[in-house]
Write a structure and sequence with these properties.
The chain is α/β, with parallel strands linked by helices. It has 11 helices and 11 strands. It has one domain: 3-Layer(aba) Sandwich (Rossmann fold).
Length: 346
């Protein structure tokens, strides 16, 4: 039985993760979408992503479904999000893991409600709040392992509306004499906070962390995006935006540090094409190994020792960075679930 939530009765979500940042332009939508894509494609999970950046919706483009459209179920009157079935990879065709055949990605955004993709959304706070409440109550997400919520930068109406929607459910449980574990279940699993390394970003992200504390929103951890640029020619790393700001922030606020994601041109290429960066790079690595093996087999390639093999893997550093972040978030989500069942706080 699913936990109480502000979602409708047709939707059952195990983990709701809100992606936040007090600063614009730090790659929050990138982290949110790549987290959702990696969970769906690599972890084989049923994933939904809700875009509540009302004035700047970019999730459909990043996920490669901007040309799709939502529909409404005549029977229930609920919106049906755009759904992408995740094909089972050929290398995993014999897998019997539970959930493999159910892996999917569902996307909901105001972009699907606009007459034209270039139309500006010129709304005041109350109308944006009403739209977000509709996204929570009037969308049939079905059964999901994860719901990722991509938010705009700041600590304004959209964020407060999200948190208040969950808090009202918790208050209702408390009024009915519910226990603490049920009240804890009513809230989201937690927030993932995104920053870049430099002080001008971390200073604003500190405000976001204080916002989370005031609204009792659990912080799963901090992701440092744009952390160093590795030159594709000489492999030298240049810290364009300084270094270590996310880690210092996590130490200051005593919350988990989820990892770093470097600057890599392949990110923009993947997102323009609506692809998962992690999947794209893993396929590149597999192709590199296959090409090397075939060259060795034909005798026209040099033998690759351990150091050469390690160098090949380093080329997928962006993939490894994203996968590290995904694995850390998954581990914390399960930890929260365990503590919730025990009636404890993280």
């Amino acid at each position: 039985m699913s936990a109480p939530s502000p979602l409708n009765a047709s939707s059952s979500v195990n983990h709701t993760i809100i992606v936040l940042s007090g600063k614009g332009g730090v790659g929050k939508s990138t982290v949110a979408c790549q987290l959702a894509l990696s969970l769906a494609h690599i972890s084989r999970k049923r994933v939904g992503i809700l875009d509540v950046d009302i004035c700047g919706p970019s999730v459909p483009k990043i996920c490669g479904v901007e040309d799709k459209s939502i529909t409404m179920c005549e029977k229930t009157g609920l919106w049906l999000p755009v759904e992408v079935t995740i094909p089972k990879p050929a290398a995993d065709s014999t897998s019997t893991r539970r959930g493999d055949d159910r892996a999917c990605l569902k996307v909901m955004s105001i972009a699907y409600l606009l007459p034209n993709a270039t139309d500006a959304v010129v709304w005041r706070g109350p109308r944006k709040d009403a739209m977000i409440k509709q996204f929570l109550s009037d969308v049939n997400w079905g059964d999901l392992d994860y719901l990722i919520v991509d938010t705009p930068p700041g600590t304004s109406d959209e964020h407060m509306t999200l948190c208040e929607a969950f808090c009202k459910v918790a208050s209702g449980i408390a009024a009915e004499g519910g226990d603490i574990s049920a009240i804890s279940h009513a809230g989201p699993t937690g927030a993932v906070v995104v920053t870049t390394p430099q002080d001008v970003s971390t200073d604003d992200v500190r405000k976001e962390l204080n916002f989370c504390a005031k609204l009792h929103l659990r912080v799963l951890g901090i992701v440092e995006n744009m952390s160093g640029f590795v030159c594709p020619n000489c492999s030298e790393t240049t810290d364009i935006f300084s270094k270590g700001g996310g880690k210092r922030l996590s130490d200051m606020y005593q919350c988990p540090f989820l990892g770093t994601i470097p600057i890599d041109p392949r990110i923009s290429v993947a997102q323009d094409n609506g692809e998962s960066v992690a999947v794209m790079n893993l396929l590149e690595e597999q192709k590199a190994w296959k090409d090397a093996a075939e060259a060795d087999k034909k005798g026209d390639g040099e033998h690759r020792d351990g150091e050469d093999s390690e160098a090949m893997l380093k080329d997928g550093s962006i993939s490894n960075g994203i996968l590290d972040v995904v694995q850390n978030i998954r581990a914390l989500a399960f930890k929260v679930e365990r503590l919730r069942k025990e009636g404890k706080a993280l």
